[in-house]
Amino acid sequence: MKHKIQIKSPATIANLVCGFDILGLAVEEPYDIMTMELSDQPGLEIIHLDEYQLTTIPAENVAGGALLAMLEDVKDAPGLKLTIDKKIKPGSGLGSSAASAAGAVMAASKLLQQTFTEEDLVRYAMFGEKVASGVKHADNITPCLLGGITLIRSILPIDIVKLNSPELHITIVHPQIEVKTSDARQILKKEVQLKNAIKQWGNIAGLVAGFMKEDYDLIGRSLEDVIIEPIRSILIPGFDEVKALSKEAGALGGGISGSGPSIFMLSKDKNTAIHVETAMKDVYNRIGIDYKTYVTRLNKEGIKIIE
Amino acid sequence: MKHKIQIKSPATIANLVCGFDILGLAVEEPYDIMTMELSDQPGLEIIHLDEYQLTTIPAENVAGGALLAMLEDVKDAPGLKLTIDKKIKPGSGLGSSAASAAGAVMAASKLLQQTFTEEDLVRYAMFGEKVASGVKHADNITPCLLGGITLIRSILPIDIVKLNSPELHITIVHPQIEVKTSDARQILKKEVQLKNAIKQWGNIAGLVAGFMKEDYDLIGRSLEDVIIEPIRSILIPGFDEVKALSKEAGALGGGISGSGPSIFMLSKDKNTAIHVETAMKDVYNRIGIDYKTYVTRLNKEGIKIIE
Fold first, then answer.
1. Domain end among A128, A163, A198
2. I want to staple B161 with a disulfide (CB 3.0 to 4.6 A). Which of A80, A129, A268, B151 is the partner?
3. How far is it, in rounded angstroms, from Cα B132 to Cα B92?
């Protein structure tokens, strides 16, 4: 048995425009680095190397909550020490909590040589999401664990579908403002017009078909959200402009990453993704809001073991 | 130039459970037989060989309405005589009007050697649907014209996506009661709960992915409608029982065909489809409602030219 494992746990983009609560994808960057070691001390020790001042009390920590759920099902588990170097900023809308939760259970299952199913791992990791936001959701966890583009057809019972993952380049801008997931949820209307719901599911069907057929035009046409984005985008200054200029720069389309404030755009090639980055920078430079950008790719593997 | 063309225009199943207003498929049976001939008389003559007492005044006839829309774009069109032997009962929920409209425009475009796009043909045929129900919809017309399983991502502008069509056997029961499309539309609520809309689009995404991956289990799990079926099925006596017993007999799943009253069930093989037929017959024999059943297959070609 190895004594130590080190992994890269990637950022993820949930919701995917029309795929609210059901679709997600993993990106190559940013990612957290997590190291798990067997320890002589019983129980679970968590160390954060980053500056985000996250609690290290296991039951209150996202990675800890997920791990504790898993360890309940492991007989005679040894002591574990988890060191997290978080690069995905909490609250960015890039699946920071999912990276912690999914990374922790993946690392532990490998280190302890447990043969859990993908569904088991998702279920354990969801306990971490519950610590983070009070809600068990799987649309970041699943692409983080499995890579590529994933569909959560149903959460109860959990039904995960891995979709085909065409080559996609992804540009992300994270304006340095705070949008709380709970606020972003609260402003949504509990009822939607049937005619808008029909538009939305036409687009979702088109987007899934586009991914499966690797039909980039269809992907682009389907990246339209008539229900969530019109409401949530109000919380993100510059959103409409970023979207319009990114499409002018050649992006297939995109929208709010998770519940924001990050915005993502999909492109067919790297050059376009770089042009999109320039367009995004221009918007926030003009508005005068600090930001961080990433030009990255679809991550087809999910969590990667470094050593 | 040929002087005559004869085609088989197939029945279609719209809505496909969770795919309300966007998904449809064509079946091998039943089908209408339509014969179109060049005529010395200018204009359009329509003859019905069936017993349904449909009007033969071109502008008020479904096939006629579609044809007249098309002929507006044809220079120096000759006189045409269209003979329709309708086997798909109007009001069955099996796309009877779509078969007339799509069949008419397809036959005429071939006979007159016009090179319209698929989208053009759908657009013309929708004028026939408007004659039939007052609403231009394309979810029966498209699979009738193209065959297989089709997605209408958007109606304005029209965006048609042909999905992969796995081998599917289809059992249909048509209880001989009347459900008017307009009534079936009227009882729907104009607003739906967001949480139900999310369930629905998870199922639609799953269904599309299931068709693309030929994953029959996924198709079965995704054939769930939490929005339309609970309301519309009230109009169809025996619906819940037909569904439950069909699944017990091995069907993947199914639901209301179009706006009813026909009910369809998908199966992986012919034997199961036959067992499902028995289950359906048992229900309506017990209730004492006349019915007609079909055991058929997914029609991958759509309209077929006989001669």
1. A163
2. B151
3. 13
B175 shares its domain with B286? yes
Tell me, yes or no, whether B306 lies in a domain.
Answer: no
One domain, residues B234 and B280: yes
Considering its fold, how many domains does chain B have in total? 2
Which among A159, A201, A221 is the nearest to B200, CB-wise?
Answer: A201
Range of the domain at A279: 169-297
Q: Has residue A307 been placed in a domain?
A: no
pLDDT averages per 10-residue partition of chain B, 307 residues: 93 97 97 96 94 93 96 94 97 96 97 95 96 89 98 94 97 92 84 96 98 98 97 95 98 96 98 98 98 98 95
Answer with the one of B164, B180, B202 that is the final residue of a domain: B164
Residues B124 and B272 in one domain: no
Distance, in Å, from the CA atom of B70 to the CA atom of B66, rounded to the nearest integer, reads 6
Q: Same structural domain for residues B71 and B209?
A: no
Nearest chain B Cα to A214, which residue? B212
Distances (CA, A) of A90 to A62, A99, A236, A284: 11, 10, 17, 20
- The answer to whether A23 contacts chain B (CB < 8 Å) is yes
pLDDT in tens, B205-253: 999 999 999 999 999 999 999 999 999 999 999 999 999 999 999 999 9
Q: What is the ipTM of this complex?
A: 0.95
Question: How many whole angstroms separate alpha carbon A59 and alpha carbon A55?
Answer: 9
The CATH number that applies at residue A80 is 3.30.230.10
- Kindly report the pTM of this predicted structure: 0.96
Alpha carbon dihedral A62, A63, A64, A70, in 10-degree steps, equals 120
Q: Exactly one of A129, A150, A229, A293 is catalytic; which is it? A: A129
* Domain co-membership, B209 together with B293: yes
Q: Over its length of 307 residues, how does chain A's per-residue pLDDT go in tens digits?
A: 689 999 999 999 999 999 999 999 999 999 999 999 999 999 999 999 999 999 999 999 999 999 999 999 999 999 999 999 999 999 999 999 999 999 999 999 999 999 999 999 999 999 999 998 888 889 999 999 999 999 999 998 999 999 999 999 999 999 999 887 778 888 999 999 999 999 999 999 999 999 999 999 999 999 999 999 999 999 999 999 999 999 999 999 999 999 999 999 999 999 999 999 999 999 999 999 999 999 999 999 999 999 8
CATH of the domain at B274: 3.30.70.890
Which pLDDT tens digit goes with each residue over B122-150?
Answer: 999 999 999 988 888 899 999 999 999 99
Within chain B, where are the H helices? Answer: 62-71, 96-111, 118-133, 141-146, 181-186, 194-213, 216-222, 229-232, 239-248, 270-287
Instruction: Select the residue from A25, A188, A208, A228 to test the B interface by mutation, using most B Cβ atoms within 10 A.
Output: A208
* Pair B271, B148 in one domain: no
**Does A91 share its domain with A184?**
no
Domain-located, residue A79: yes
Which one of B139, B153, B191, B214 would you mutate to disrupt binding with A, by most A Cβ within 10 Å of its Cβ? B153
In a domain, B305, yes or no: no
The reply to whether residue B22 touches residue A202, judged by beta carbons under 8 angstroms, is yes
Could you confirm whether A178 is annotated as catalytic?
A: no
Identify the closest residue of chain A to B215 by CA–CA distance: A161
**Nearest-CB residue to A201 (from B204, B209, B212):** B204
CB contact under 8 A, A202 and B227: no
Nearest CA in chain B to A204: B205
Q: Which residues pair with B191 in a beta bridge?
A: A193
**Cα→Cα distances A174→A85, A129, A295, Å:** 19, 21, 12
3-state DSSP helix/strand/coil percent for chain B, to nearest 5?
A: 40, 25, 35
